[in-house]
Amino acid sequence: MGFKCGIVGLPNVGKSTLFNALTQTAAAEAANYPFCTIEPNVGEVGVPDERLEKLAAIAKSQAIIPTRLTFVDIAGLVRGASQGEGLGNQFLSHIREVDAIAYVLRCFEDSDVTHVEGRIDPIADADTVETELMLADLDSLERRRTGLEKKAKTGDKEAKITLAVIDKVLPVLREGQPARRAEITDDQRKIFDLLQLLTAKPVLYVCNVDEGSAGDGNEFSKLIASRADAEGAQYVVISAKIESELSGLDEHEQQAFLEELGLEEPGLNRLIRVGYTLLELVTYFTVGPKEARAWTIEVGTKAPQAAGVIHTDFEKGFIRAETITYHDYVGFGGENGAKEAGKMRLEGKEYLVKDGDVMHFRFAN
């Protein structure tokens, strides 16, 4: 398990160029005209984590298996997409099941690349994208409400509960606010999540800047940073052009290119870290001679549920988890050294797995 991120944005903001670079494929055609992505594209990348490489080296693992990040690239949205303008509305359904939505925003000036609305204004672009997503949610809930109201009148308890949640969200959307602003109680959260509303999902703003601004951003990206801070959202500054060039280089060439630009790492690494922060995700590891593997879970996941990410039998028959912190595993030269130093712990069913834990699960068949 990694996380699944939908990528949305207006045409010609560098969305498909970024998708191609991040997934190192040519699945999405990047072209200087609207609607060049004519069907949803899904790409997966291994999540870079230097800790996994170190663990594998110590354990002499034959294989290294990172956790995965899935990107879903959606056709460029335009104003009126929710009413059928452009092609974007056809693909909104493809991002209903993602964990977060990345708004790719144009934060660069280039006279050779046209803007669909004839101006460079990332705040207005973000508003346009969010408005279309809100209108799509509004349409979806209003359609559902009619049927649920009929069922509720017959005494259907589930329909009544769902109707109550919808009636909390509809006024928020009608006021021009995203569904995530609705005041949902803990006991309503499950129903709310099942509605799969686009504007209920966490937002990650991706500021696509020119090459010279890839390190510190520019005036456009600073506007988005202020917006993200005010909303409690996350943002990341990336140059899709640089990422595109990096995707065609080997590891050593990439490092040399990054050093030449004064950058420490590819934008993908920053994007993933910001995504993990946004979704409150952590990584634990399983390490042995056959493979070193990374697993992604939510903050606050207990040991049996973490084991269940590997296999449901591990969760059902969970007995205990032999646990070593990453720093102790590396510091004492592996599992045996950590054991001899008294650094291996036996954790039970209530243990909350921490980022970097190296774990071996014991379970009953």
Unreliable residue stretches:
25-38
Structural class: alpha/beta
The global form is flat
Mean pLDDT: 87
Q: Biggest β-sheet: count, sense, barrel? A: 6 strands, mixed
Helical content band: 25-40%
- Number of helices, where a helix is a run of at least 4 consecutive DSSP H or I residues: 13
Radius of gyration equals 23 Å
Strand order of the largest sheet: 2-4-1-5-6-7
Order of helices and strands: EHEHEEEHHHEHEHHHEEHHEHHEE
**Approximate strand percentage:** 15-25%
The total of beta strands comes to: 12
Ends distance: 23 Å
What is this structure, in a nutshell?
By secondary structure, this protein is α/β, with parallel strands linked by helices. It has 13 helices and twelve strands.
Keywords:
single chain, about 375 residues, alpha/beta, six-stranded mixed beta sheet, three-stranded mixed beta sheet, 12 strands
Mind explaining what this structure looks like?
The chain has 365 residues and is an alpha/beta fold. Helices cover 39% and strands 20% of the residues. The protein has 13 helices and 12 strands. The protein has helices at residues 15-23, 50-59, 122-153, 157-174, 189-194, 219-231, 240-246, 251-261, 267-279, 303-310, 312-316, 326-331, 335-340, and strands at 3-8, 41-46, 63-65, 68-73, 100-107, 203-209, 234-238, 281-287, 291-298, 318-324, 345-347, 358-363. A 6-stranded mixed sheet has the order 2-4-1-5-6-7, sandwiched between helices. Strands 3-9-8 form a 3-stranded mixed sheet, with helices on both faces. It has a 3-stranded antiparallel sheet with strand order 11-10-12. Strand 6, helix 6 and strand 7 (234-238) form a beta-alpha-beta unit. Helix 3 runs antiparallel to helix 4 (157-174). The longest helix has 32 residues, at 122-153. The radius of gyration is 23 Å and the shape is flat. The relative contact order is 0.14. Mean pLDDT is 87; it is low at 25-38.
